[in-house]
Design a protein that fits this description.
By secondary structure, the protein is an alpha/beta fold. The protein has 19 helices and 30 strands. A hairpin with a 6-residue loop joins strand 22 and strand 23.
């Protein structure tokens, strides 16, 4: 059969955020069984190109069946994909796979309406399904799938999965555009607000194991079965081959847990060293499975960054999460990793059912004591299949499972509009804490700011500068475009554009430091222009209406832009949860459709995702402020 395998994208623009390694393994295996494969990695193209590309492949390549793989957060994208495919070819069989099929299978079948869904590791199950379809065999006899019994979805029971990963062929990277994925990563460094590493270059994905032997309550190893590992020699063979084939300078181990024991990591490092593979790499480990000699070996062989599950600084919460570690283990691990000069990626999770204001305060103190200023606060999200999802459903916190799953596809919208409160705190307390912790992330970053030694504006959105690490005094030169959220027309305006600075990993000591947006030479021009407009209002003894009532970025933005409360007549917002909140000495009012009160007023619009919503309201209702000072429009 001629099979099209599609990986959906979570972003509208072409991006290198994720490579569909699981689909690449499926493709490689079904090719060995006689099937032809066309791969389509939608991450490699902008949203404007995706439908036409899909249409071309379906009509030109004579596809017999389409396979789509994704996690539950791709629910809406997969829904759109299926509808587009059925508009192009109404009768082509569609098979779903990946994490989205491993939970809420009946809901998934009834809502998305695929012909089949493969549950679990798909190599053997998918192949048997293809052979059954090709040979006219009753698919209900194939174990490991969801299929239809007339108009009712049924599950055929667990199917066979690979026992030994090394018996599988190497992943089919080329069919999913690995070269384009590498090209999209840019040049010598990786730049983003979250983390900038100037010495990483271009990297590729590696899988050394599947699943995870631990059972944290917020995690679901979606359809990955039992924890199993590749032979470490074969993993290094693969890495060496990819270095020679693709000319990359780094790799990321995509595993949920690279290794559950130290000996395996030590063996991996020994082989990298023996083969003199000069390459940077990144992995995820547990904090109770490390020691200093192992970490030093990792550093020597190119590991400059490790992701750890920190989650909390309270043993009560860690126990509730079934993390199987304590805050003392975390503190000891942080010291060792810093001594080995390896960077730390980790988050604190807010909102476990055991969370209280007391446990939050305990975690905040732990964060401060260990200077974990770049381990940001995130919310516990009850993804389908996790124990806390079951808890939320059983306690009536999730009333409509489809609506909930769709809400997670816009994670920012979910976190601010429909977040599930699983704690004993009131919803208002919970929301206030979430907003406070998110703002604290930005405040914490500024506790370790870099000093700019020199800087030059190269163009409107590009500067070069030399900075010094506040931890080890190492100096480095940077040259980059900013803001990072740009397209061919310049900065993307429907965001708090130009406010968030950048976190930089020092290549010498591997500690993070923060560069304020205001300290980037070409950005200082905009900050000065906006400040001048605000100062003119005060100097002219005028008053202004201010929108929105900032929550996140409020503290840091008002450190960089001074707004005298005396010039503020009113503060407005469109978000109901901001009603009555104090901002710039005023109680926040909610904008409704009647905004005539803005007529003849000075309007100051601060950094805002919805800034154009208000400007359009002004136009539609012919409301004319005497002057509008809009932060976002300074970037137009």
């Amino acid at each position: 059969m001629n099979i099209l395998l599609v990986s959906p994208s979570y972003y509208p623009q072409a991006n290198a955020s994720y490579f569909p390694l699981g689909l690449a393994y499926i493709s490689a295996y079904i090719k060995t069984q006689g099937h032809a494969v066309e791969g389509l990695n939608l991450n490699n193209m902008d949203i404007s190109e995706r439908t036409s590309r899909l249409n071309y492949v379906l009509t030109d390549r004579k596809i017999d069946l389409v396979g789509i793989s994704g996690l539950t957060v791709a629910f809406n994208e997969i829904d759109k994909l299926i509808k587009i495919i059925r508009e192009i070819q109404t009768d082509i069989p569609i098979v779903l796979g990946g994490g989205i099929t491993a939970v809420e299978g009946e809901l998934m079948m009834n809502t998305l309406r695929p012909d089949y869904a493969v549950v679990g590791e798909g190599e053997f199950i998918f192949t048997r399904l293809l052979n059954a379809i090709e040979n006219g065999i009753d698919t209900k006899k194939i174990a490991g799938i969801w299929c239809w019994d007339v108009d009712r979805p049924i599950y055929t029971g667990d199917g066979e999965t690979p026992k030994k990963l090394d018996e599988l062929p190497l992943p089919d990277l080329d069919s999913f555009g690995i070269k384009e994925h590498i090209q999209l990563q840019g040049g010598h460094g990786q730049y983003s607000n979250h983390l900038t590493r100037v010495d990483v270059g271009r990297s590729f994905p590696i899988s050394a194991s599947r699943s995870c032997p631990f059972k944290c309550t917020f995690c679901h190893h979606a359809g990955m079965g039992d924890y199993k590992k590749h032979n470490i020699v074969k993993v290094v063979d693969q890495i060496e081959s990819y270095i020679n084939t693709y000319g990359v300078t780094g790799f990321s181990i995509y595993d949920e847990l690279f290794s559950a024991n130290k000996a395996r990591v030590v063996e991996f490092c020994r082989l990298l060293k023996e083969r003199n593979l000069n390459i940077k790499w990144f992995c995820q480990l547990r904090m109770d499975q490390i020691d200093l000699p192992m970490l030093q070996m990792m550093r020597e062989t190119g590991c400059n960054y490790i992701s750890f599950g920190i989650e909390s600084g309270s043993d009560i919460v860690l126990d509730s999460m079934k993390k199987k570690i304590t805050k003392q283990i975390i503190a000891d691990a942080v010291k060792m990793v810093r001594e080995a000069k390896i960077g730390i990626q980790g988050n604190f999770l807010f909102g476990d059912p055991a969370e209280t204001e007391g446990t939050i305060q305990e975690s905040l103190q732990f964060q401060e004591d260990n200077q974990l200023y770049f381990c940001d606060w995130s919310a516990v999200i009850p993804y389908a299949g996790t124990p806390i999802y079951n808890y939320a459903v059983q306690n009536g916190l999730i009333e409509d499972r489809e609506t909930f799953m769709r809400s997670l596809c816009n994670i920012s919208g979910y976190l601010y509009k429909s977040q599930i409160n699983m704690t004993k705190m009131s919803d208002e307390q919970y929301k206030d804490w979430y907003i406070k912790l998110r703002e604290l992330n930005d405040e914490n970053h500024r506790k370790r700011c870099t000093e700019v030694i020199s800087g030059t504006v190269l163009s409107r959105w590009r500067s070069e500068l030399t900075i010094v690490c506040p931890s080890c005094a190492h100096q480095q030169a940077l040259s980059f475009d900013f803001p990072f959220e740009q397209d061919e027309n310049g900065p993307i305006l429907n965001s708090p554009v130009g406010v968030q600075g950048m976190n930089i990993l020092c290549p010498e000591c591997a500690r993070k430091m923060h560069l304020k947006a205001k300290n980037i030479p070409h950005m200082r021009v905009i900050y000065d222009q906006f400040q001048n407009e605000i100062d003119n209002i005060k100097n002219n003894n005028e008053k202004a209406v201010v929108i929105p009532s900032l929550d996140r970025f409020a503290t840091t933005f008002l450190e960089d832009i001074y707004i005298d409360e005396g010039i503020v007549s009113d503060v407005y917002d469109t978000r109901e949860f901001r009603r009555g909140k104090d901002f710039l000495g005023k109680s926040t009012k909610i904008i409704d459709n009647n905004i005539d009160s803005f007529n003849g007023k000075i309007l100051v619009i601060l950094p805002w995702v919805e800034y154009n919503k208000v400007t359009e309201m002004l136009k539609s209702q012919t409301v004319t402020p005497t002057r509008v000072v809009c932060w976002n429009e300074f970037f137009a």
